[in-house]
## 1
Amino acid sequence: MIDEALMSDLCGGVAIITGATGTLGRELAAELARLHLDLVLMGRDHRALEQLAKKLSDLGASSATPLAWDLADCAGLVDTVRQSAGQRPISVMVHCAAADHGGDDEASLQRELRINLHAPELLADMAFGDMQARGSGQIVLLSSNLALLGEERGTGYSRGKAGLERIARSMIAKNRQRKVHILTVVPGLIDSPLFRAGLARRPSWQRRFLKPRLTAAELAHQIVEKGMGRSGLLVMDPRHRALRWLADIVPGWQPRWPRI
């Protein structure tokens, strides 16, 4: 259970969730709805966001506001989110959105970096300012196992996700409020339609790929239960903690991660 004092600190503000219509984003939004928070749901599909907002209101969200936005467009992002929040301070910010096109061309690289790094940095800075002013809050940045270990192709995803931890560490270093928490989460593999489709197309991955340990719903619940009220780095899958340890102590070693 989340500490009642922490919940009291988070109430009265708005929870921003990017990538809210994604597999893990939907489940994290549902977890926050059950905490009776006011939500701003971000994604690119307005219709899907409206449907999700209705579901979350039924689950207990105090309010659920859909905000259709492509995070590749950083111009005006902060002002638009402020408007959707109704000028209320941000007490929770969860960044789930991600782009992994797998391309090495400059256009793909720049788009992935805007979505995976630049946009969440703008939103995190905005949220951090609110949290410092009100004396409490929680930022959760969803990273990736590829951020821990790196990859040879499509580096806009791994670079961007790795940068999230640097953003979090910088905020932790200048944080002067005991009740403001900044957490980077490496969720691990998710039992999602995308993952299962990848396995179905490439049977050889059954032998090469670490399989998901948890469903998205189970993972979201653990992230909220273990992560709220915490700062630092949270690697959910112990297998990925072991792989990071190997990558750190063996120069040049990299596991072969097939791409989905």
## 2
Amino acid sequence: MRIVIPGGTGQVGAVLRRALTAAGHEVAVLTRRPTRTHEIHWDGETLGPWAEAIDGSDAVVNLAGRSVSCRYDLVNLRAMLASRVRSARLVGEAIAAAAKPPRVWLQMSTATVYAHRFDEANDEATGLIGGNEAGVPDYWAFSVHIARYWERAQERAATPETRKLALRTAMVMSPDRGGVFDVLLRLARLGLGGPVAGGAQYVSWIHDEDFARAVAFLIEREDLAGPVNLASPNPLPQREFMRELRRAWGVPLGLPATKWMAELGAFAMRSDTELLLKSRRVVPGRLLEAGFAFDRPRWPEAAADLAERVRRR
């Protein structure tokens, strides 16, 4: 197949590009700074010659959008919203204008769309959309707002010949440098990988190989459309998540952190505590119903595999 990945130069894009290329597919990446073979320039804002790559392709997987690894001030939140909505609309325009549109458009979304909760897990059918929870920072609602407008941009695109899926994706764990697993492992190796603010908040995650396999599965399954959760079926509390990560690397202890300590650490790393403190208890209801089988559905085995791959890199 010919598969186009707008915004495919980040960590998740690298995971997907490697897997799809290894499977024999022809992959083109749309990027603002092309440096490699099969990378095509686009600005993420206007139609241009890059749209020719979409015309006649089999699938588009749009990953474009400003990184969430930043301080969640109003400027950055607005930039995240604008970059995601604008790029989704632009991809929709390119598909609508294509003489031979792709048969499927997978649009990146986020598991952050679901509510901060500790009780029931959020699947696509019964999950609670966030934004109205009591006792959480007001700006957390803006992250949900971003996710909903991101998905709405795809829903409203006039692409009747193209099946559309919104990938509500949990944290993709890969051994690549600079990815979320790399950051968490570094904290654990420094002895800082203990529970944060008690550690009861749930962590939703997906192993990189299962993520790539799930995307390929969704491209092939013509009976699936709409939102799909890309997450392991076994989210777990942050204190257990970090304990298993430490065990995978052989680190006996991890210092706990209070909420204010987490705030200081996030400020120093130019990140935000929502990524640590929001309880994302998300499960892949539709994937499981469709018969998708996870190779690494449990975190201890997934963490051990990722740690071994870091050692080999």
## 3
Amino acid sequence: MKDHKIIFATSNEGKMREVRMILSDLGMEILSTKEAGISADIVEDGKTFEENACIKASAIQKLAGGIVLADDSGLEVDYLGGAPGIYSARYMGEDTSYDIKNRDIIDRLADAKGKERSARFVCAIAAALPDGEVLTTRGVIEGEIGYEIAGEGGFGYDPIFYLPERGLTTAQLSAEEKNEISHRGRALRKMKELLRERLGICR
């Protein structure tokens, strides 16, 4: 099965930069849904990251054909019972800025110390293929919620996701460093290998 392009189901430019960096050596054009001229209001009513990624990828694939990738990712904070989890993008409302969301989470963890601040980023990637098959991969990175917002890089919850072993938030890492260890980077690299296998792409 050959195709010269992959559509990634997002309009998030920060996410697309990460995706292109990691998938660039597949030798295929990587387009966002916006760049592909696709607009769809998809109801993500799955109960897991994988279910939501599959819903998005399959819905866009039916509209666009070809190969469509989608991700669903989020922040799980143990002190908050795993919230915001699959509702990370919708936490406090989709139109609420991440500055406000990040500050709220820090405030809610005001009494949490040390390992009580444990958290993780989770990302599931789904690839909907022309023959109807849907592949999924998962990537996870463990860390903690920082005591303050720090860093100008990344996006979303990166400025509060602290990596104790590095002494930095993921927003303080370079794009290359972040892609090397991030939940999305890990899931994408796994997916890249599955696609190489299915599409017969040589290294």
## 4
Amino acid sequence: MAAARPAPNGSDLAGPVLAWYAAAARELPWRAADASPWAVLVSEIMLQQTPVARVRPAYDAWLQRWPTPSALAADSAGEAVRMWGKLGYPRRALRLHECATVITARFGGAVPDDVAELLTLPGVGAYTARAVASFAFAQRHPVVDTNVRRVVARAVDGQGNAGPPSTARDHAAVEALLPTEPAVAARVGVALMELGALVCTARTPRCPSCPIADRCAWRQAGSPPYAGPTVRPQRFTGTDRQVRGLLMDVLRGSDEPVVRGALDLVWPDAAQRERALAALVADGLVDPLPDGRFALPA
């Protein structure tokens, strides 16, 4: 019986993953050589919990209207929310507007290239800061999303899925796979992400098409089913989040403030509707006006 191969290290994975990425990666506008750091930041905010197919048209429209942070900062927060459309989690539109304002005022209109400075921007957390530093400025940082965690769990740990996240553990595991050269490490990071999105998928992995199938610890173990802890998916139907979305649809669809009666029509449960509306006001997504009407933020 042949001895099991040792777990792969960075040099085992980087070469074949990069070769696969060069041949198979999707042509996405935020990956283009001429994509600005602002374009990369916009894409990363939009891609949070939102699939690429839904992001692409919104991204194109956003960058056409506001190609720079200063262009967005000069417009109203309400227009950012309106332009966000049905991408979901519309607070991201407010955060992008706030980001643009801070970048314009504090950084001269240029997206900062330092992770610590990126973390000072409204709504930019550890993942987004590292993603922008890596993908926009070719720096060496572990950029860990669900797809990357799944690739590492299978290829390195021999597990069918990654289980609940652990920031410190996940960053250390991915950093160990990155080459030393910053620009190459950044490309490996996005290549691992793409591999998880297109090949090493959650439910039906395309192992015969995988460039690292011959060194994948999970495959060597016989692709056993995952039996560890899981994260329960969030439901949407009937939740306050659904009601907030319906209320926002009414406000985005009107060029003028709307009366309460127009909002009352979207959901029959008055208590839930009022709770959702109050949450939108608290989040700064809706402005209650003195005359009793409601509007997008100024």
